[in-house]
Amino acid sequence: MSAIPEPIGPNGSLTRGLLFLLAATAGLSVANIYYNQPLLSEFRQSFPGGANWIGAVPTATQLGYAAGMFFLAPLGDRFQRRTLILLQIAGLCIMLVAAALAPNLATLVVASLFIGILSTIAQQVLPLAAELSAPTERGAAVGFVMSGLLLGILLARTVSGVLAGHFGWRMVFGTAVATMLVLGAIIAQRLPRRTPSSSLPYGALLMSLWHLVREEPVLRNASLTGAALFAAFSAFWSVLALLLSGAPFNLGPEAAGLFGIVGAAGALVAPFAGRSADTRGPNAVIKLALWLTALSFLIFAGSAHSLSGLIVGVLVLDIGVQAAQISNQSRIYAIRPEARSRINTIYMVAYFIGGALGSAAGAFAWHHAGWLGVSCFGLLCTVAAGINHHFRRRTQTGVVA
């Protein structure tokens, strides 16, 4: 991260300090949708009557995130992103309080849905980083912000597991409220105002999403590849706590959360993946990422009783998925500068729909085929991503889709 120059953007618009703030905002906001994943066993104990529906909590959160990206993220092209971010933080704090005080599983699921919807702050931050950076540094800037986002995703599980292990799962959501309040205060002081790039009414803004999907093969290809990879990623993380809670491990949420530290090492490749996409093109990085992700699920398949195998697999999985994500985003942000929020919306909606389906399918595979079934599902998703990427087409401008 220290390799990021200051200033990085045109005319000094993106300084190192602002880049760190954008990365922190992305990470701390997206962390809210991952706090619940190491807590499934604790939810089951608190709400025994809904034990068979515990998987609805992470699934609702990710579906909410996809809905929030569709209905809220495009507004970044129309309104001040700073204002949108602050409004989302205010609503998010209310929903986190509701989750912390949830008297039953149904309330927790509904609160989780809205937590997902309102946690889409990172989808305002990423287009802003691309907008503020010079074209030759765009991949590096996006990669740096993504490294913050990915660290938030991965370390959220660690923080959640540790807090739940010592203070109970409700304290996890209470701590998240305090974190978002502090972040909101800093953003109100430091985040710059930017002129919106579109004057389209809200309905026309949403309708333009379909036109972008239809007209941009690069966007379609990247979205499908990303969705398949994130389905594999989510299937693994959504059931890891269940694997570790049973024999032969018999470990609690704290141990499951500590796997996030291993995955965080993989997130550190994000800036390097971004620079590689800038200098060598994203295609080579994506191919390598696909092979690494496939390898990780082969490792997982043989590690149902091996902590060391799971640790190695997590490291390989996160390196692969994060490198593919950075490279995909680098190529889509170059398509239409005036529509970056909407392009990001399309990509990330597909991405998190894939994640939600992966979480649900992972729970189904775990129930019917155990850990081997989860590993096979992850490998199947990775193969699907590879097939989609391999049979890409060239656009009329000659850009590889």
What does the secondary structure layout of this molecule look like, with pairings?
Layout: H1 16-30, H2 40-46, H3 56-71, H4 81-100, H5 105-118, H6 122-132, H7 138-167, H8 169-190, H9 202-215, H10 217-245, H11 253-267, H12 270-280, H13 282-301, H14 307-332, H15 340-390
Helix pairs in contact: 1-6, 1-7, 1-8, 3-5, 3-15, 4-5, 4-8, 6-7, 6-15, 7-8, 7-11, 7-12, 7-14, 9-15, 10-11, 10-14, 10-15, 11-14, 12-13, 12-14, 13-14, 13-15
Detail the poorly predicted runs. 1-12, 393-401
Topology, number of strands: 0
Mean pLDDT: 85
Strand content: under 5%
Order of helices and strands: HHHHHHHHHHHHHHH
Task: Please state the CA-atom Rg, rounded to the nearest Å.
Answer: 20 Å
What is the CA–CA distance across the termini?
29 Å
- Going by CATH, the architecture would be Up-down Bundle
CATH-assigned homologous superfamily:
MFS general substrate transporter like domains
What kind of sheet is the major sheet?
none
Number of helical stretches of at least 4 residues? 15
Q: What is the CATH level 1 assignment?
A: Mainly Alpha
Number of domains: 1
Bin the helical content.
over 70%
The helix/strand class is: mainly alpha
Q: State the CATH topology.
A: Growth Hormone, Chain: A
Sum up the overall morphology in one term. Answer: globular
